[in-house]
Write a structure and sequence with these properties.
Blueprint lengths: L2 H36 L10 E5 L4 E3 L6 H9 L6 E3 H12 L4 E7 L8 H15 L5 E9 H7 L4 E11 L11 H7 L2 E7 L7 H4 L5 H26 L3 H9 L1 H4 L7 H7 L5 E2 L2 H12 L1 E2 L4 E2 L1 E3 H14 L6 E8 L1 E3 L7 E3 H12 L4 E10 L4 H16 L4 E10 L1 H4 L6 E4 L4 E3 L3 E7 L1 H6 L24 H26 L3 H7 L4 E3 H7 L4 E2 L2 H11 L7 E4 L6 H19 L22 H7 L3 E3 L6
Parallel strand pairs: 1-4, 1-11, 2-3, 4-5, 5-6, 6-8, 12-15, 12-22, 13-14, 15-16, 16-17, 16-18, 17-21
Antiparallel strand pairs: 7-19, 9-10, 18-20, 19-23
Amino acid sequence: MSAVGRLLRGTWHALDALRKVLHLVLLLFIFGLLLAALRGSVPYLPRDAALVLAPQGAIVEQLSGDPLERALARATGDDRPETSLHDLLEVIAAARDDRRVNALVLDLEAMGGAGLPALQEVARAITAFRETGKPVFAWGTYLDQRRYFLAAHADEVYLDPLGEVAVQGFAFFRQYLKGAADKLGVEVNVFRAGTHKTAAETFTRSDMSAEDREDAAVWLPALWDAWKADVAAARGLEPEALQAYVDRMATDLAETGGDLAQYAQSRGLVDGLLTREQFEERVAGTAGRDHDTHGFKAMDWQPYLTVLRSEARIRKRPERGIGVVVAAGEILDGEQPPGRVGGDTLAALLRDARFDDSVAAVVLRVDSPGGSMFASEQVAREVAALRTAGKPVVASLGTIAASGGYAVAARADRILAEPTTITGSIGVLLIVPTFQDTLGKLGITTDGVGTTALAGSLSLARDLDPRLATVLKASVDHAYRQFVGMVADARDRPYDEVASLAEGRIWTGRDAHTAGLVDELGGFADAIEAAARLANLPEGYGVSWLQPSLGWRELLAMRVRGGLAGAMDALDLRAPQQTVLVHRLLGSQWPVVLELAAAGRPLYWCGCWVE
């Protein structure tokens, strides 16, 4: 054997040995994690303490990311801060009659975004907790409009002496990209059915259209009036006082020498100004003192939830009950990962519920700005199939259920919405950007030959062929007529009557109820009760969350993440399966135009984006 051959053979054996060593190291690492996980334990809860409710990040209908992604993100410290709305509601409801809980403390310092309907759900739960006689305390350094809404429902609200209650009201502003598109040479071709289907105007205009302004002039004041009414009732103020707090701040702040905390106290928005240490002393007088931490006796809400669900698993489940399916996020075709609603994914869940004898009725919780018309129709067909099978379906509309989000709910037996839900937007929108002028600025041109009049017409590097434009416009008009007709059939209303409510108009839940697009005003708990009535369920019925099954990777990752307690925390023990569904709140943003270009085809977009 030559010297070169011996060298190559030796190198190969060395690399093979290195591969085996690395595999061994990886296996030892995994087994080490598993051994560490097995040493986990169920959290310990004190017998008599204050429950600290401290939501992290946005309050959402469903946590984004599948269990494996969330577990790995937490392990690396790269997790996205989110808090499940339904986890919060479950914890507060359980704490009402739990002797281990003697008070509720709202720590809202790390809370992020939340839609007004979600905040109202939590506020109602806090109010119900107060009715037991147990006190609720709130404290903060910077109470923005969302945080203050919840804090206002406490018995006592305190602000740091250097803090602020930052209430500003509601606003709706878009960024308009027409000027930038013109400079870049991007031609945005828009086909829409519905005079008020204005979402594409961010690409085609430099300012707000009259139709967009007309809609905003209706739903924005409605949200603001609801916010003021709820806070005023909780704080014993008049709504006009909250309006004046904002409108007169620039002039009246001089009374307190520019001290924002004093200004909030003088206007009755908070009960006092306390440092965190002083606040803990105040709570300790009710909840008891923790001599180890020198603060008040406390239990965190997340370990408390873990214990609640472990206790629930021990109890016998009713044979038949209500299944809850969450439809939250953009609605897209096919199977979709968490963070989006997949037409196939959600339809499969509803189909499973149809053939599950333990499910007597379904509550479809919707929080979606819309999306693919085909995917929305897939879900709506399964809703209709459930009803045909004799299983009632109640749609519960959350922060937003617009366009495709309303379409998936339209065929339900009953539709419930919060007064502040954003819904409607019955219309169809198609956006096809082309980049021929952009390429031309770089000296790039396109030429060629096709076998038919439309061959190659979908290329985004060419002008949109007028014949293709005619086809697309006809398709959009047809889709719109189908959308309106579906709603008319589902709501048992004349087509022309529904058409007058459509045109892409945005409605609040209250206005939608008046218009007949919604059956009742109410929250998630009301929807559960309505479903139980329709199914004639006896008292004591169960509620389960219908969710895709976990694979071994997800189960392993959750087990490794935090032992027994961590696995129980990651698993949704309200249901036999773990969720991989999605969420999107009121602050939804536009999809990037380049995604459309990369797809190489036009995209039906029945969405409504509201900031």
